[in-house]
């Protein structure tokens, strides 16, 4: 008696088992076919699906391998991208920390600048007050020198005229700095001090006692006394006053003035010469 024929599903299982033993790459396709053959429709077994061919199985495996390769590449790209992003995040954090440090330093610098500005502002106010005091002081000195100018001998007035012209007129606003005005005043005082400690000889034209004018030699003893003598032996004495120098004839001193002139010019040996002096 021949054996009873086996169901189709049993034969399919044997083929799949043989395929798994001989070709592992076809195992997934066989398992898919078995699962399809066991589906039911409305409670009754569904019609078995035809077994995939070897070519279909090979194509399916190629697709699966290609999919795995794509997944592997995507995973590698994602890993590399994550590392790049992590490096960028670290760099940005470092830059943020640097900027925060710079902001802190800038804020500290602004605070120091504000303090320095307040200090400079206070110092500037002090300098302005001191400058105002200096201007007041130099104005007083200029006023005194302006009054002194008329009582100076003519040669000294001529010599100091450029310096006196730099003195601003009284009550007139000037843009000349206080330092320059002080320098000008000191220059005038220095020249006056030298003239006051010197004996100078000058040639001038004076009015004689008879009303005529004549050239005379004048000896200035500092800024307080002067003596003159003409070629005809006419002599006189000059003294300063608030309105200028006052000259008066003094015939008695003619010989002494001539002796003093010769000593000053080196024509005689130094000697004591008595000349009248009036102190005011």
Output the keywords:
280 residues, alpha+beta, two-stranded antiparallel ribbon
Mean pLDDT: 82
How large is the radius of gyration?
A: 63 Å
Helix content percent band: 55-70%
Strand content: 5-15%
**Major sheet attributes:** 5 strands, antiparallel
Low-confidence stretches: 1-6, 16-44
How many helical elements?
A: 6
Helix and strand composition category: alpha+beta
Order of helices and strands: HHEEHHHEEEEEH
- In whole angstroms, the N-to-C terminal distance is 179 Å
What topology, given as strand order, has the largest sheet? 3-4-5-6-7
The total of beta strands comes to 7
Inertia-based shape: rod-shaped
Oligomer: single chain
What does this structure look like?
It contains six helices and seven strands. It has 280 residues and is an alpha+beta fold. Among the domains are: 61 residues, no CATH class; 67 residues, no CATH class. The strands form two sheets. The protein has a five-stranded antiparallel sheet, covered by helices on one side. The N terminus is likely disordered.
Question: What is the secondary structure topology, with strand pairs?
Answer:
Elements lengths: L7 H15 L4 H11 L2 E2 L2 E2 L8 H96 L4 H12 L12 H19 L2 E9 L5 E9 L3 E6 L4 E5 L6 E4 L4 H11 L16
Antiparallel strand pairs: 1-2, 3-4, 4-5, 5-6, 6-7
Helix pairs in contact: 1-2, 3-5, 4-5
What's this entry about, in short?
Helix content is 59%, strand content 13%. By secondary structure, it is α+β, with helices and mostly antiparallel strands.
